[in-house]
Amino acid sequence: MKKIIASLFCLIFISCSSDKTTAELKLDSIQCLMCSYSIEENLRELRGVKKVQVDLKNKSGRVVFNANIIDLSTIENKITSIGYNVNNKLADIRAYEKLELCCKKPKEN
Question: Rounded CA gap, 69 and 90, in Å?
Fold first, then answer.
């Protein structure tokens, strides 16, 4: 009986841990720490997102999420909806226009 309980525990533990998916984010439009913070905070609010790290210097990020609850497309849509490009998807223009000046790309001459 103890072996059966131990086996069930191991099976549940393994199945729960395999739900985590890690995805890389290309964030070519971020400009400052406020951008990084905004993306991290907005993604952390999403159900199923486990961990978010944004690397301002490399204009990239990494998100760990439960693929049974949320998918990468939903995560990308959240980022574009707050005004940032991600993985070659363009930011929502209305959201981009509302960003602070420091979060906008410098205009080319």
Answer: 24
